Protein: CHK kinase-like domain-containing protein
Organism: Cotesia congregata
Amino acid sequence: MSVPAWLSAPFIEKALRRSENDDSICIVDCSIKPATNKGDNYTSDMHRVTVEYRHNQGAKAVTEKISIIVKVAPTAEGIHKDLIAEAGLFGIEIKMMTTTLKEMQLILKDKKLSGRCLYTQEKDPPLLIIEDLAPLGFRMADRQAGLDLHHCILALRGLAKFHASSVAVYEKTPKYKETYVKGIFNTGNPPDMIRFFTSGMKSLAKAVKSWPELDDTYADKLDKLADVAYERASESRTPDESEFNVINHGDFWVNNMLFKYNDDGKVIDHIFLGFRSNAASRESCYVNNAMNSIVVDRIRLSRHSDYNVDFQLCVYGSPAVDLAYFFNTSPSEEVLSKHTDNLIEEYVKVLSETMKKIGCKRPPPSIADIKKSLVKRDVYGFVAACTILPIVMIDKSQAQNIEEIMGQDDGEFNNKSYENPIYKKTMLRRLPQWKAAGLLEA
């Protein structure tokens, strides 16, 4: 991924001056490099910018160093650019980060949901400039292995607080129910987005046909189901006002969250992908964990900090939307098979406590309510496992970009992640369960 010509020191200087309301800011040094690996992010181009700048502080001129992420809508002609533009994803994310998320954070206070958005631009090209969370010692977990129980507990505690604060916000501003209406499964999404899921289901059917462990009925059922699966997932996502509803993250999977670890390598904190607090950026910092130990004056940089940043698919509806997506893309198979009930209980407990603490008027759901909502949205998680999970599990050395998957040159869908033996092992356990539940019927 090349750095666009306009992404330069003068542009960053202008953005920082506006963000900090400080016209004395002057860039001393600026380096730019890709912020994600191939296959990590399908909705934007990401650049990490390390900046050294001078500015006036009282009568003194002081020098600061910061690391920021520049997230840009795809600019190269092709499927990637067209899909993101047609879906309007950047407009949704800008709205979320500049208004709704800020309000949620103010209400929540004791839990940092994300971080600070420094600068936005709605066109030519659409972009966000956001503070880098790596300096706080957060990093991504191993998406291939799946999250263990401790990681999952922290993730669902964070999700519960996110959902609770969203309830408080939309109780004050009901219009947000109409703002976040698209999500990842919506029949109004661009044809290429729908084709990604339909073709993914057909690719799974083709792969299953070569698995001797399963009889031919599995492949036949999946092939027939492919043409209606996206529509069914979309229908299951539609809000039901008789149920408990929240603003869902909409893309709550392992690549959209970061974790922090203590000196012994034990996971101690979770955050939605976002950015560091302004206060932290102005301190001398020490980072030490089992994987990484570095000291940098006034800026902490992690060697394990490549990541995605997404609030583009936020959608109002049952919290089962986020829960079903998470359960089917992120935990290890051991956690999913042994601890799903424990995780639901932890989620409901933290959701209830948080809603009470921040003064929500609506009563929280019970554990039975959430389980009922999850059963109602079985198809949502099922389609996610059939289309998103293979990408989660693919080794980074074999990752493809969206043009390679969608077949920009010849129009033929070619997602190599269905050849992954780790994914095959997972699906050999899950497919019989889904078949017994009737989810494979077209």
